[in-house]
Amino acid sequence: MKTDTLLAELTYKAVRSSGAGGQNVNKVSSKVVLTFDLTNTLAFTDAEKERLQTKLAKKLSSENLLILTCDEDRSQRKNKELVTKRFLALIEKTLVVPKKRKETQVPTAVKEKRIKDKKTISEVKQNRKKPDF
């Protein structure tokens, strides 16, 4: 993953935040909207793009745009840093290919213990019956 190329391709837009905050909310554009075009990026190989498209399918718009927002802080700069960190973490997390699970055999001792437990339970139940003279 080429982080420098990736950061150069990001588009930021400042928008007015919603919610409580009084007059400050109406005047200041502190909310930051990050937009990333997945189809036209040069930072990823075709295989990585395909993986990102499948993993982030629910978060992508119809034009394959990834849109993230942040309005946690009153500072526009801080919100921009937060949304960028969140974006990079999301990309790193989705690009990780999980290891394939290697099937293992059930150990012999476990099999023997299970059979022994079955026998003891069976004996307990047999001892509950009335004796046959």
UniProtKB/TrEMBL annotation:
Keywords: Hydrolase. InterPro entries: Pep_chain_release_fac_I, Pep_chain_release_fac_I_sf. One of its GO terms (molecular function) is ribosome binding. It is an enzyme of class 3 (hydrolase). GO terms for biological process: rescue of stalled ribosome. Its EC number is 3.1.1.29. Residues 16-32 form the Prokaryotic-type class I peptide chain release factors domain. Belongs to the prokaryotic/mitochondrial release factor family. This is Alternative ribosome rescue aminoacyl-tRNA hydrolase ArfB. It comes from Flavobacterium capsici. The gene is arfB.
